[in-house]
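Q: Got a minute? One more chain.
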Amino acid sequence: MINFAVMMKVIFILISFLILSFMGRISAQEKPFGIVIHGGAGNLIEGKSYDAHLKKLEEAIDLGYDILERGGTSLEAIETVIVVLENSPLFNAGKGSVTNIKGEFELDASIMDGKELKAGAVAGLRNIKNPIKAAKFIMDKTKHVLIVGDGAEDLLFRNGFKKVDKKYFMADASLKPFQDSKYGTVGAVALDKFGNLAAGTSTGGIQDKMKGRVGDSPIIGSGTYADNQYAAVSCTGHGEFFIRNAVAYDVIALVKYKNLNLQQATNFIILDKLVKQGGAGGLIAIDKDANIATPFNTNLMFRAYKTNKGDYGVFYK
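A: Always. Here it is, folded:
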């Protein structure tokens, strides 16, 4: 016969576990969460319609937010929305990428997990449909951070990635808003219900760039950075300036060491520091409290955001 005291103790433990689990779910639901995305910064072409771009951004931001609302991770949300933008010919990433001076495609991407400070990146890909997926593979399945060119593609093909022909990336040039500009990158940053931040960036680079040129997008600390204690950042613009200034990490540093808030830190870098150097572009950021920032010093930056605090918007000016 089961001892009554032992049985009551077991019941008490089970009830306590259920209560704690329930409270944990409530706590997770009450925490702030949200996502911010960008489709590149560059030159505004007067008279051109950007309705298709805004519609695609709206589709992507709603998809990413739904993932977070259902309890998905920040990494899952940013990878999913960046894939949506990479698959669209409207943006300079994946299918809509621009070419180098040789008429070849060289695609770059990176991703970072703010919880463990893990990161993965690829550069100079020529035959991979979704570079952001490749970057996540590097982060999850290798001991490295950045792998480039043939070495990256050989590894990816051996691990199930499909090779796509050059013609896949030859989207209609008339769809590209950046054909007369050297900017155009896609990215996403997110905070999930469990307090985890993540960032990702993907690009086709600069039109008519030198063969082998790599910008800031696959460089952790320049084009992408995430740290759960502070913020997640994804950049777009003239990559050489973003590399020299380690822009993505500089946001974190200003918050961490100078005690600036997210808006102050990002505005200083984009609207002051880079402008003085002649560096054009912008960034998106979200911090651990779901505060967001989207400064840019060009006359156009595609961007959208959505948080459970009621922030929502899709813009290009």
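A: The chain is about 35% helix and 25% strand.
Q: Perfect, thanks.
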